[in-house]
TrEMBL record:
<dbReference type="GO" id="GO:0034220">
    <property type="term" value="P:monoatomic ion transmembrane transport"/>
</dbReference>
<keyword id="KW-0813">Transport</keyword>
<dbReference type="InterPro" id="IPR006037">
    <property type="entry name" value="RCK_C"/>
</dbReference>
<keyword id="KW-0520">NAD</keyword>
<dbReference type="InterPro" id="IPR006036">
    <property type="entry name" value="K_uptake_TrkA"/>
</dbReference>
<feature type="domain" description="RCK N-terminal">
    <location>
        <begin position="1"/>
        <end position="122"/>
    </location>
</feature>
<feature type="domain" description="RCK C-terminal">
    <location>
        <begin position="135"/>
        <end position="216"/>
    </location>
</feature>
<dbReference type="Pfam" id="PF02080">
    <property type="entry name" value="TrkA_C"/>
</dbReference>
<keyword id="KW-0407">Ion channel</keyword>
<dbReference type="InterPro" id="IPR036291">
    <property type="entry name" value="NAD(P)-bd_dom_sf"/>
</dbReference>
<dbReference type="InterPro" id="IPR036721">
    <property type="entry name" value="RCK_C_sf"/>
</dbReference>
<keyword id="KW-0630">Potassium</keyword>
<dbReference type="Pfam" id="PF02254">
    <property type="entry name" value="TrkA_N"/>
</dbReference>
<keyword id="KW-0406">Ion transport</keyword>
<dbReference type="InterPro" id="IPR003148">
    <property type="entry name" value="RCK_N"/>
</dbReference>
<keyword id="KW-0633">Potassium transport</keyword>
<dbReference type="GO" id="GO:0006813">
    <property type="term" value="P:potassium ion transport"/>
</dbReference>
Length: 239
């Protein structure tokens, strides 16, 4: 695929590198001469200029791009670039910083295909490093929702049961993977054994209860202190 990444700062250049490593064609747009030079030295095709200007994006062949990632630290530049890209039929991804108010986020989110928060993604990585072990945060879906990947332990109360015997009311099973096998759609007769992985969508308030059910007791209370505690998710299992 062909991508345009606007902004050769920390977020933009790393994103461009990942895309290139996966075999995609990437053009970087950057208005700062020093950053543009750094991107060229890294081997990227670079268009020097303001990505919020249509003539600059035309030089980057926006009409032939599959998607545009507006990843500068300037919200106005990012939004203008996405509107131009949208006019040319591109998928649009816009960076927004965490300190913007929710109403600002909603205003822009309705106009682009995807909004990314570098700070939130970095926080997820840091939280995973702190939690360690059998719990991995995958994504924050909304202010109160998160997707986590749990690895079933020997202490799991649900070890030996099938997914049909796990009936969450305030949490949802999204994917399942046997030990050392790829994740896939969960089936009712899948049995839970130590080393299996389950991706779960849950409200922050019930994450600790879900963790206790799938992983078992956590003497350190790591997830409880990180996510908070609340009313149980009402998972049911046979007695």
């Amino acid at each position: 695929m062909r991508f345009i990444v606007i902004g050769a700062g920390r977020v933009g250049l790393r994103t461009a590198r990942v895309l290139r490593e996966e075999g995609h064609d990437v053009t970087v747009v950057e208005r700062d001469p020093d950053r543009a030079s750094r991107a060229r030295n890294a081997g990227f095709s670079v268009v020097e200029g303001d990505g919020s200007h249509e003539d600059v994006l035309a030089k980057a062949a926006v009409e032939r791009a599959d998607a545009v990632g507006a990843l500068t630290g300037d919200l106005n530049v990012n939004f203008a670039a996405c509107m131009i890209a949208n006019h040319h039929g591109c998928r649009t991804v816009m960076r927004i910083d965490e300190d913007y108010r929710e109403e600002i986020y909603q205003k822009y989110a309705d106009e682009v295909d995807e909004v990314v928060y570098p700070e939130r993604l970095g926080a997820i990585g840091a939280k995973n490093a702190l939690l360690g072990g059998n719990i991995r945060a995958i994504a924050d879906i909304a202010e109160n929702l998160q997707v986590l990947l749990f690895t079933i332990t020997d202490e799991s109360p649900m070890r030996g049961y099938t997914l049909s015997e796990v009936q969450p009311s305030q949490a949802r099973l999204l994917a399942f993977g046997k030990r050392d096998q790829p994740m896939r759609i969960p089936f009712p007769d899948d049995s839970l054994e130590a080393g299996d992985r389950v991706a779960v969508l849950a409200d922050f308030e019930v994450l600790d209860d879900v963790r206790q059910l799938l992983v078992g007791d956590d003497p350190a209370g790591t997830l409880a202190s990180a996510a908070g505690t609340g009313v149980g998710p009402e998972w049911s299992s046979p007695t």
